[in-house]
């Protein structure tokens, strides 16, 4: 009986670990203009831009984070830019993190969750308002 209970407990723990790591991987944005790689580090989840449909300007120069409120970061390239930070997994959602929008230079509170058909819902909040995007797993 002890072995059965131990086995059930181990299965429950491994199911939780599998569930929370389903977000790990590469995700294509709703507008199909970029891919973000989501990864886990020390129990928290982060995401960085790894691909852009148009990574360079007309002169072949990589686009940079020109709207960043920190002037010292405006020369950082968009490829490799960290846009999702400090998410925790709880109740089938990734919460408590922030999402950075390089087009506006603004950072928003964010929650993410997976749908039944394995799409990632990414919702950024500003006050009482929010915007939700649907990201798809990149191949």
What do these coordinates show?
This protein has a single domain, classed as Lipocalin (Beta Barrel). It is mostly beta strands. Helix content is 14%, strand content 46%. Strands 1-2-3-4-5-6-7-8 form an eight-stranded antiparallel β-barrel. It has one helix and eight strands; from the N terminus they run H-E-E-E-E-E-E-E-E.
Mean pLDDT: 89
Count of helical stretches: 1
Strand content: over 45%
- Main pleated-sheet profile: 8 strands, antiparallel, barrel
End-to-end Cα distance: 44 Å
What value does the Rg take, in angstroms? Answer: 18 Å
Which class do the helix and strand fractions yield?
mainly beta
Strand line-up across the major sheet: 1-2-3-4-5-6-7-8
User: Could you say what the CATH topology is called?
Assistant: Lipocalin
Encode the helix/strand succession as letters: HEEEEEEEE
Proper CATH architecture: Beta Barrel
- Helicity range: 10-25%
């Amino acid at each position: 009986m002890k072995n059965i209970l131990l086995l059930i407990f181990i299965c429950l723990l491994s199911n939780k670990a599998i569930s929370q790591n389903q977000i790990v991987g590469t995700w294509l944005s709703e507008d199909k203009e970029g891919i973000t790689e989501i990864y886990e580090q020390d129990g928290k989840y982060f995401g960085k831009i790894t691909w852009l449909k148009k990574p360079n300007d007309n002169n072949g120069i990589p686009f940079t984070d020109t709207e960043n409120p920190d002037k010292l970061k405006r020369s950082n390239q968009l490829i490799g830019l960290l846009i999702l930070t400090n998410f925790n997994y709880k109740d089938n959602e990734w919460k408590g993190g922030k999402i950075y929008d390089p087009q506006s230079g603004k950072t928003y509170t964010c929650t993410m969750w997976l749908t039944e058909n394995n799409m990632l819902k990414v919702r950024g909040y500003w006050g009482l308002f929010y915007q939700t995007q649907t990201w798809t797993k990149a191949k």
